[in-house]
Amino acid sequence: MSITNPLAPSARCPLATLLAYCLWPALVISSSSILAFGFVSGHPAGLSETLRKAWFFNLSYLWLLLWLFLLERRRPWREAWQQSDRQLAADLSHTLLDKGSVQFTIILLSALPFFAHRGAGVVGSLPLWVQVVMGLVASEFGLYWAHRLSHEWPVLWRFHAVHHSVRRLWIVNTGRFHFIDSNLSVLASLPFLLLTGISMDAIIWMSAITAYLGLLTHCNVAMRGGWLDYLFNTPNLHRWHHSTNPAEGNSNYGQNLVLWDQLFGTWLRRPDAELGEIGIVERMPLRFREQLWVPFIWRRYQRESAGADPATVV
Ligand SMILES: [Zn+2]
Ligand SMILES: [Zn+2]
Fold this sequence. Notes:
Elements: H1 14-40, H2 49-74, H3 88-111, H4 121-124, H5 128-152, H6 154-164, H7 179-195, H8 200-218, H9 235-241, H10 246-249, H11 259-264, H12 288-293, H13 298-305
Bound molecules: zinc ion (2 copies).
One zinc ion is lined by residues 163, 218, 238, 242.
């Protein structure tokens, strides 16, 4: 299997390099512009303000999804990752359960009387962009530590390993998380955010940015981060996070920003180095239902599957 980086210095042509640098910002800016239009346009006229924003959020997400779907086919970062890993059904099932349960947790938390002052007070009255920047930086602290501990604490790794067990990255496995893993991340970041009194509009923008950047981190598209790697969790950084080599994989824990990675010394950037195989050293069952259950029988499963046919595990 070829693992040649199409953006390695030996393989570059000036136009392809320029395009590789422009793709990430162009996709983020165009998606954000669609959402911004939804905030000011007043269309579709028949919908309430909240539904209108949700409509444009979905529209912007679909826009990004379609572009990445096309680009993964025309400009893949690694051609071998275009081949099936027989995880499509499991990836989509995890995504559905994950998104559904996280939304339920968010609605439940937001409805608690404890957080009823949302949008009121000093933070909620600041300009929207200031709230979004502050909210991203503050929530990243909880997200960083929840993610880092899920690598460093064996009991949490059992759940997080579901995400890392993939052998290729593409947009479809962006949301492949054990639902307990994702809900722990929400619990580590959202309560503090709600306590600050941040407005609902700021939370919508933060959710949108998280959705856009999350989809981009897993896309198999030849992109370069450049200076953006110093601020955001770009695909170039996240691929190293999926390395089977712990010295490389235990890095870049940030969800959207890499501020806390830089402060705590876990930021890893190797734009011209060749990434090896990705995945985990442990075994993971192929089927969705077994993947949900395996964290609870982790040691026994690893023992019993050690000699199993590799075709039955990922
Ligand atoms: Zn991880
Ligand atoms: Zn990932």
